[in-house]
Design a protein that fits this description.
alpha/beta; Aspartate Aminotransferase, domain 1; Aspartate Aminotransferase, domain 2; seven-stranded mixed sheet; binds D-malate; aminotransferase; pyridoxal phosphate; Aminotransferase_I/II_large; transferase; DapL/ALD1
Length: 410
């Protein structure tokens, strides 16, 4: 009989968000009249920007005409999109990133997992705790960890706790690690990183030959002008960091799918025989072998984000969700809860009340307010006692959810 990848058997039963959906569906089945408001998964709710829709409609027309029809595109993405990204997202912020270092993909979640294909199995890996579960689970699947212990931590991973006590800022490890996952603005805590904090990581990575996986999926939510949007704003980061970005949260592409990964050309790793290998070459090889690129239509939609109208429309979308986050922060504070994040991020991180565990708080909110959030412990052991509320919803739903919470908690 064929054998399976036993590493999958080490994983906690379900991925966090499907597990939440399962519990919510069971609740709705038992309480069909309940008007449940979902502020759990960070999925956008507002329509695609008009500029993106127009560009995609035009692209569909291109596909209907032999002279403008497109078959397979470049696996790395079309040059016209990569050039706009390089100019707007990086060069305009002083980052020396070339279009050829940008790889277009169908999502940051996939890229964060797929990137492990080009790294060895003997790296020491550090994650913050709490953390976006994909970073941990993909390493478990790849066999980079041992079993899960009773604390909910996988043997072999280095966990860097981020809690209110350290102001949600992980300490730079004292031991040597090879791969480090950082996410700013942070999912789930909504915390941001200053240039000084990122510089400390870049200095550490360069001194130790480590690679930083920098997840900037939420960079568009940064309103504080002093905060960096890209790790490449830090000197030396091109020698030690891969950055992931997405159109999901800034332009509402969660269902449309488009993202990008930056692999600088001078980034190197070591092969078993001790020689230096350019990571760009390996990622390029990986993508051209296992991926056929994002559809032409979707890339045209993403390109429209960089037009004048696209910029104005995406800014308006982000401001809308940030206003939701502000309302959530204010109302939860009024309800007597301690809140963090939500100022330069679409996530509000809440301390659960009266010593409730994260899942107790989840049940209480679901049962008494019919509001869904995400239990902090689902993001890691140090998330226990916290709860994440997503600002991705309509204004009416956010207002109604907060009204119910104030009613029950105040
Ligand atoms: C979340 O809720 O954390 C997001 O949905 C993560 C993601 O974009 O995959």
């Amino acid at each position: 009989m064929a054998t399976v990848n036993d590493n999958y058997l080490k994983l906690k039963a379900g991925y966090l968000f499907p597990e939440i959906a399962r519990r919510v569906n069971a609740f709705i089945e038992a309480n069909p009249e309940a008007q449940v408001i979902r502020l759990g998964i960070g999925d956008v709710t507002e329509p695609l920007p008009q500029a993106c829709r127009d560009a995609m409609i035009k692209a569909v027309e291109d596909m209907g005409d032999r002279s403008s029809f497109k078959g397979y595109g470049p696996e790395q993405g079309y040059a016209w999109l990569r050039e706009k990204i390089a100019a707007h997202d990086f060069q305009a912020r002083g980052c020396d990133i070339d279009a050829s270092e940008i790889f277009i993909s169908d999502g940051s979640k996939c890229d964060c997992g797929n990137i492990l294909d080009i790294f060895g199995d003997d790296n020491i890996i550090a994650v913050t705790d709490p953390v976006y579960p994909v970073y941990v689970d993909t390493n478990v699947m790849a066999g980079h960890t041992g079993d899960i212990n009773e604390k909910g931590e996988y043997e072999g991973l280095v966990y860097l706790p981020v809690t209110a006590e350290n102001n949600f800022t992980a300490e730079i490890p004292t031991q040597k690690v090879d791969l480090i996952y950082l996410c700013f603005p942070n999912n789930p805590t909504g915390a941001t990183a200053t240039k000084e904090h990122l510089k400390a990581w870049v200095d550490y990575a360069r001194a130790n030959g480590s690679i930083i996986f920098f997840d900037a999926a939420y960079e568009a939510f940064i309103t504080d002008p002093s905060l960096p949007h890209s790790i490449y704003e830090i000197e030396g980061a091109k020698e030690c960091a891969i950055e992931f970005r997405s159109f999901s949260k800034n332009a509402g592409f969660t269902g449309t799918r488009c993202a990008l990964t930056v692999v600088p050309k001078n980034l190197i790793g070591k092969s078993k025989d001790g020689s230096n290998v350019e990571l760009w070459k390996l990622w390029n090889r990986r993508q051209s072998t296992k991926f056929n690129g994002v559809s032409y239509i979707v890339q045209r939609g993403a390109e429209a984000v960089y037009s004048e109208e696209g910029q104005a429309q995406t800014k308006a979308l982000i401001s809308f969700y940030l206003e939701n986050a502000k309302i959530i922060r204010e109302k939860l504070t009024e309800a007597g809860l301690a809140v963090y994040g939500g100022e330069n991020a679409p996530y509000v991180w809440v301390k659960t009340s009266a010593g409730l565990t994260s899942w107790d708080f989840f049940d209480k909110l679901l049962q008494t307010c019919n509001v869904v959030g995400t239990p902090g412990s689902g993001f890691g052991a140090a998330g226990e006692g916290y709860f994440r509320i997503s600002a991705f919803n309509s204004r009416d739903n956010v207002n109604e959810a907060m009204r119910r919470i104030l009613d029950k908690f105040k």
